Fold each of these.
Amino acid sequence: MKTAIVILNWNGRDLLAKFLPSVIAHSAAEATIYVADNASTDDSVEFLRTNFPQVKRIQNTENGGYARGYNLALKEVVEDLVVLMNSDIETTAGWLTPVINAFQANSNLGAAQPKILDYKNPEYFEYAGAAGGFLDALGYPYCRGRIFETVEKDIGQYNEDARIFWASGACFAVKKSVFWKAGALDEDFFAHQEEIDLCWRINALGHEVKYIANSSVYHVGGATLGAMNPQKTFLNFRNTLFALLKNVSSGKVYFLIFTRMCLDAIAAGKFIVERKPRHSWAIFRAHIDFYRNFYKMYKKRSVRNNIGIYFEENSIVWSYFVKRKKIYTKN
């Protein structure tokens, strides 16, 4: 299976200098490596041309975020299997082989992710993906190895492959044919949650999404938008509502969105108590933007959506905050 690794870059010269060597060392024998530049204003492109001539370059004419950036880039990638990789990922020896093998062994596999560990704290899982993602009964995303702000230490508890609902966009392996068949990444998301929306559609097509346990990478996380950036709060809250409207079945979609918006209001109040008014305002802006784009998102609803297949039965919010069960294996 011909494989490509596509790294999206925006003004990330220093990240490329630090992490690209490990990707080349551990992956070049099995994959063609691309860097897709999202109209950087630094010297990233010239740096690549001078220091990494073996890496193929794709030049996007605008910064369309994660979604549009990859959609444009994948039109120029010829390989069958593509790994969408953040520029702040450090790979490990042999990481790619199990991923390729999984796709070769299972023709129904649509997307997958490796074990994602914390670059800054290597014994722990990393927030954005950990050991694979799920959605709870209210549509809240969480991971094996990370629920809300609680991140588990990797002690081998997730050392077996598993079917998951969504794979992390930090290191997202997908069959290119499935990527396009599912409708690609939704460019209206710009960034954050778009991989969950895409995996939802991949699942709806009948394909599997899996976690590959014996493949490991290390992720810095927050290199483009840190957790304390209100814009990240805005995108996460707005895009969650977008994904629900697009993908939840007709009988439950409006009740679920109403419930989530009420819980969002509670989250906004919590930010005020914590003296983070800009994050509270970001949630308000997210709701306004959701209303503004409601009809546009409604027209994207899939005829195949079915909430019963994809959501877990329990509420991770109730389990985490009320029952105090903060570890995946205890839920």
Amino acid sequence: MTFRTRVAASAAFVVAIAVLLACFAAYRGSRDALIGSADASLAGAYTHIYSGTPPSVDPNVAPGFGMLLYTSGKAFISYNMGTLPTDAAIKQVASGQGHALFRTILTSDGRALRELIAPIPAGTILEQITPDGHEENIGLFPSPAALVLVESFQGVEERLRSLGVDLALLAALGVLVAALFGWLAARAALIPLAQTTRDIEEIATTLDVSHRVDEGSNDELGRLRRAFNQLLEELELSQDSQRQLILDASHELRTPLTSLRANAQVLGRIDELGKEDVTQLSDDMVTQVDELTRLVGDLTELTRGEHSVEEVQDLDLDELVGECAEIAETHARTKHISIELTSAPSTVRVKRDRLTRAVGNLLDNAIKFSPEGSSVAVTCKDGAVIVDDSGPGIDDADLPYVFDRFYRSSRDRGQPGSGLGLAIVAQVVQEAGGTIEAARSETLGGARMVLRLPMPDGRTRF
């Protein structure tokens, strides 16, 4: 079933229910009005009969009425009642245990009658009016009695049947009209959606993510178009980022690969080289391979971070930073650099492995640029990690770019590295919802890196 069919069916269903309810209400209202009219006639006849003192039974109270006076288990007076029997309801009212009631009954030949059964209290004296107009005393009723008035209801039943047929036809017609107009309304309402679908299909065919759909008005469909345009923008940014990553990676790979190629060509003349030259050539090739390995590892980490499936968890930041500092000390000893750690209990909500890599990169970077015999200060508190080194620091012109992929200042391009370490830190922090800043250290004179992470309650306190 298509979306248009579902919309049309839903609209038709709602309208059809409304039509059916309206027809049902009209039938019930007409039925209640007709029954109420008949009951009012019977009540009027009863009032006419039982309004005097003493009450009088007039066989000519209204043409078309039947009348029965029932007491002591027998019919006392009966006018125009035909062969209608007295049933349990009449007997119960005549015994003084029932209340007045209206009901519809059927005769033996299938005719419909409307009936009023009303109680007459004990001690009532009734009189009847003779055909010549004189009043004649019927007598005193020492026990309760029942006065039964009957009126033909056949015409009302026939009118109700006719009305029911007419309303059923009207309801069927209303359902058909509702289905037609529901389909037309769905068709008109879905024209903008069809245009949007064609635009999306065109983009899917051409793969032109720079194209944007017309957002139109500020309704649900406009919201969908804006969301799709936002998706296209993110996809375009992702493609641009991928292209730039490939270009930057190609540029970074070109230098070590060129060196490896040159050294490999030199190996072809190894017989012409001395022992020291061969040793130097071997060391250079190992260094170049190590540089390629680091570059590939950093690229892998960047890619893994964009699609990381590691679960976010609450962890003690001070313990994690302490573990990273212990690992970094093994590298710092080779340069006689001391790592001074100051920490306080702090809990953050992050991915553990990713944060471990980020903190490790900050410490490795600080050790790398600090001179021999100097120190690195690490402070951990309130969801923040602050790393100060004793190196030359970061020039003001380089501060906006230090977290870009493959960025290295002109002063640092001779140093080993891929230029991806701080980019990985920035990616981890952004993924965790934190921030990373670079500045000059006021204590050690080198660079200062300030990494801030959200606390488990979603707040930050720095």
Amino acid sequence: MNNLARFALRLLGLGLVLALAGFAMAGFSLENLDTRGPSEQRTIRPVGELRESDGQSAYPAERVTALMVTDEDHSIIVRPSADGQWRAVCYERKHGRYEADLHNDGVFRLRYVDDRPWYERVGITYCGESDHDVLVYVPAGANVPMTLSTVNGAVSVEDVAAQALSMSTTNGDISAKGVRCAGEMRAETTNGAVLLTDLAAQSVFGQSVNGPINFTAVDARRGDYRTTNGGIAGSLAGAASEYTVSARTALGDNNLTSGGNGPRQLNVKSVNGSIDVAFAP
């Protein structure tokens, strides 16, 4: 072994010792190594906490016209509200907080802000499980457009109604269950699966680059499902004769035949993956 190799091994060993020492000083807790600091729960309500742009009167929750959530390093979960009120439950740190506003346009905006300098972001970012998710509770019958976007986290929506629903993430799964959407529902991820269950929408768009797309009991006038590395499988409402189909895969089996003249449109495309779609009239 030459001198350069010996020096490299010694340097590596020193680095491991320093890393272990730092981990021990942090109480063997990854969260303590996060430069954003310890987390603290915060509940955000449009009524009473958020105010109109004039800063005077409280803004009634029934006047919420849309929901927009932008996050990073956390999952976004949307569920129905048991008390009929809009509410967001999140976890903030000294250098990681949420900005929330609800102005005269009626849009309830929730945005995560990481205000650390760039050199502190290079270190460890700890993302736990449920203790770092942001949960948004939606009143029954709210039926407003919803836009949910995160990076390095999942997006999950269950048992709510929306005029339109857009869900996107870079690294994480997207799931929607029991959703009723009057317009378009979009689910887009780069590295993760798209899981759709018991949905009704005017149109559904599901896309993943590295991950499968699975759906069960999806009822839509138009369905567009695309993935590069992954299969596409599931069941759609209606008979096969109700669909006009375009289906293509480069590497994998395909049980669909392109064609037909039904009023429903179905586009299914995969590059490396099989297509296995059933119809349930």
